[in-house]
Amino acid sequence: MTGRPAPAVLPPSLRSGLGLIASLAALVVAVIGVLYAGHSEPGRVDRWIVDPTADSVRPPWRRVALATDFLGEPAGAAMLVGATAAGCLLLRRPRAAVLVVAGTGMTVGTTMLLKRLVERTIHGAGNLSYPSGHTAFLTALALVVALLATGPLGLGRTAGTSLVLAAALVSGAAMGWAQVALSAHYPTDVLGGWCTALAVVPATAWLVDRMADRLVDRTAHAGPRERR
After folding, report:
1. Backbone φ and ψ of 161, nearest 5°
2. What Cα–Cα distance (Å) separates residue 29 from each residue in 33, 67, 115, 149, 194?
3. Is 80 exceeded by the pLDDT of residue 54?
4. From 1, 30, 148, 220, which residue has the greatest number of CB atoms within 10 Å?
5. What angle do CA 15, 147, 143 make, to 5 degrees?
6. Hey, CA dihedral for 204, 206, 207, 209, is it positive or negative?
7. Mind listing the pLDDT tens digit for each residue in 56-89?
8. Hey, how many other C-beta atoms are within 10 angstroms of the C-beta on 157?
9. Average pLDDT for 191-205
10. pLDDT band at 18 (very low <50, low <70, confident <90, very high)
11. What DSSP state is assigned to residue 54?
């Protein structure tokens, strides 16, 4: 008796489109990293977007910014990932739960590595800023949830890709605004974090599918031999 195969976390119809987007995003991350490597001041683009000498956002918007920022802190991130993964398990989608943890974890890990490589700082030598880990995390989680929703919603290539990009844009914009408003990151740090998630999550989803499919194949081939 064989069960129904688990749905792919990276729908086949979206693979080519998201693969291209991921490649372009990785290029953007690399270019910005090279441009601002070792810098400790805002660049021309940063100054054009926001006045670095301006005061941080004030109440009531400051409370909104702080609440959004908390979602990217270790405690807030753990709660979001735990709740989302638990929801996937309740829906009997273990592969999706793996992607929730792996997708966000790989994205955050990549930002940590890039920060040490680029060594761009803000507010002092110890505050590595590029790319924004908070922005990368929330964007990654939104990307994962959107990817997992495309199958059940029966979305095709255009609608599915639009949903994934819209989720990334909304989540990235929200966290990016909070980081810039709180003077925690430069706008180009936020763009780098957003693009990091766009580059890492599709690749992680593809790897999760490949590993899960191989495990299923091995189990299927082992089953008949065991029955003999």
Report:
1. -65, -40
2. 6, 27, 11, 27, 9
3. no
4. 148
5. 105
6. positive
7. 788 899 999 999 999 999 999 999 999 999 999 9
8. 16
9. 98
10. very high
11. S
Give the tokens for residue 43. Answer: 């660049």
d(CA 28, CA 196): 9
What tens digit of pLDDT does each residue of 137-169 get?
A: 999 999 999 999 998 888 889 999 999 999 999
| Tokens of residue 63, six digits | 């409370």
Phi, psi (5° rounding) for residue 62? Answer: -65, -40
If you write DSSP's letter for every residue of 195-218 in order, what string do you get? HHHHHHHHHHHHHHHHHHHHHHHH
What was the pLDDT predicted at 2? Answer: 46
Q: Residue 94's Cα: distance from chain center in Å?
A: 19
Torsion sign, CA atoms 192, 149, 7, 89: positive
Residues recorded for the chain = 228
221, 80 in Cβ contact below 8 A? no
Long-range contacts of 121-125 (CB under 8 A, 24+ apart): 121/39, 121/40, 122/40, 122/183, 122/184, 122/185, 122/186, 122/189, 123/183, 125/40
Taking the C-alpha atoms of residue 140 and residue 212, their distance in angstroms, rounded to an integer, is 20
Is pLDDT at 216 greater than 90 in this prediction? no
CB atoms within 10 A of CB 13: 18
Given phi > 0 = left and psi -120 to 50 = alpha, else beta, which region is 11?
Answer: beta
